[in-house]
DNA sequence: AGACCTAATCGTCACAGGTC
DNA sequence: GACCTGTGACGATTAGGTCT
């Protein structure tokens, strides 16, 4: 099965995996089903990480769901899109004062003219005509960690939305005539789309990491709070129930 | 030393949702 | 409705660790 065909299959028939799919996806299926269910929880804007019991239930229903019978509405609910990480994090931050917001990228773009001159020069050198690229200073986690230290610094770098060298803006459609020009235009558009999507994927992953770090730090804070409350409760219990000896 | 395993990372595709 | 953006999922690649 081709990559695309397989992908489509997975998306539209999440619960109806063929043997082939199960074979190759076995190690991932658990994670995916949890994520899908989680996305259903998150859709309403609540941050809802499944409990162990929920995870167990999810796994159970996923197994039994081989007997299909999930109506289209429910399936749609499950597959529906979750809010972006920025959205989630910002909602979190409005609930909990300690959590920093991810700034809108617009604010960073202010003051910089919307042209190619804003390109982050050393980031990536693309040879788009061949589809190859050379990321000399890619923002790998090791780089990020070195730059940011332990605690996450939200909005670490400016988004590199500018065009890479060698990608020329398309000519106006009216100026195209020959089939060759049309083909070149199509190729250029595709390369531009791929390049943008590449950058978008990087940004998305970066935000996801921030989001996860944020959740982890929140867990740490809540654990400390919980511990303190338990200690306080014990103290109050001691005070309120004097010994009878 | 090299075979194997595992986790991390990346580019790409498909698609939902947003924008104009 | 066409186009754009954000993100889940996939396969490929790579780095680091372990075993023989």
From TrEMBL:
<feature type="region of interest" description="Disordered">
    <location>
        <begin position="19"/>
        <end position="48"/>
    </location>
</feature>
<keyword id="KW-0678">Repressor</keyword>
<protein>
    <recommendedName>
        <fullName>cAMP-responsive element modulator</fullName>
    </recommendedName>
</protein>
<feature type="compositionally biased region" description="Basic and acidic residues">
    <location>
        <begin position="25"/>
        <end position="39"/>
    </location>
</feature>
<feature type="coiled-coil region">
    <location>
        <begin position="212"/>
        <end position="239"/>
    </location>
</feature>
<dbReference type="InterPro" id="IPR003102">
    <property type="entry name" value="CREB1-like_pKID"/>
</dbReference>
<comment type="similarity">
    <text>Belongs to the bZIP family.</text>
</comment>
<dbReference type="Pfam" id="PF02173">
    <property type="entry name" value="pKID"/>
</dbReference>
<keyword id="KW-0238">DNA-binding</keyword>
<dbReference type="GO" id="GO:1990589">
    <property type="term" value="C:ATF4-CREB1 transcription factor complex"/>
</dbReference>
<feature type="domain" description="BZIP">
    <location>
        <begin position="187"/>
        <end position="238"/>
    </location>
</feature>
<keyword id="KW-0010">Activator</keyword>
<dbReference type="InterPro" id="IPR004827">
    <property type="entry name" value="bZIP"/>
</dbReference>
<keyword id="KW-0539">Nucleus</keyword>
<keyword id="KW-0805">Transcription regulation</keyword>
<dbReference type="InterPro" id="IPR046347">
    <property type="entry name" value="bZIP_sf"/>
</dbReference>
<keyword id="KW-0175">Coiled coil</keyword>
<dbReference type="Pfam" id="PF00170">
    <property type="entry name" value="bZIP_1"/>
</dbReference>
<dbReference type="GO" id="GO:0000978">
    <property type="term" value="F:RNA polymerase II cis-regulatory region sequence-specific DNA binding"/>
</dbReference>
<feature type="domain" description="KID">
    <location>
        <begin position="52"/>
        <end position="111"/>
    </location>
</feature>
<keyword id="KW-0804">Transcription</keyword>
<dbReference type="InterPro" id="IPR001630">
    <property type="entry name" value="Leuzip_CREB"/>
</dbReference>
<keyword id="KW-0597">Phosphoprotein</keyword>
<dbReference type="GO" id="GO:0000981">
    <property type="term" value="F:DNA-binding transcription factor activity, RNA polymerase II-specific"/>
</dbReference>
């Amino acid at each position: 099965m081709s990559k695309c065909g397989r992908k489509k299959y997975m998306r539209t028939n999440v619960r109806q995996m063929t043997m082939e799919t199960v074979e190759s996806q076995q190690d991932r299926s658990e994670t995916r089903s949890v994520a899908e269910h989680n996305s259903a929880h998150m859709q309403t804007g609540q941050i809802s990480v499944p409990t162990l019991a929920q995870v167990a239930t999810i796994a159970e229903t996923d197994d039994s769901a081989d007997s299909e019978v999930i109506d289209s509405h429910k399936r749609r609910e499950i597959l529906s899109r979750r809010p972006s990480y920025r959205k989630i994090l910002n909602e979190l931050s409005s609930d909990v004062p300690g959590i920093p917001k991810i700034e809108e990228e617009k604010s960073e773009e202010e003051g910089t003219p919307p042209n190619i001159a804003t390109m982050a020069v050393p980031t990536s050198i693309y040879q788009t005509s061949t589809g190859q690229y050379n990321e000399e200073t890619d923002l790998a986690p090791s780089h990020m960690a070195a730059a940011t230290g332990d605690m996450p610094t939200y909005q670490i770098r400016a988004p590199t939305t500018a065009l890479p060298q060698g990608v020329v803006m398309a000519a106006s459609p009216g100026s195209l005539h020959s089939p060759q020009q049309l083909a070149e235009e199509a190729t250029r558009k595709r390369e531009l789309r791929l390049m943008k999507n590449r950058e978008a994927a990087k940004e998305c992953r970066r935000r996801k990491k921030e989001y996860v770090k944020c959740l982890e730090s929140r867990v740490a804070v809540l654990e400390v709070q919980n511990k303190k409350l338990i200690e306080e409760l014990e103290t109050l219990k001691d005070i309120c129930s004097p010994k009878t000896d």
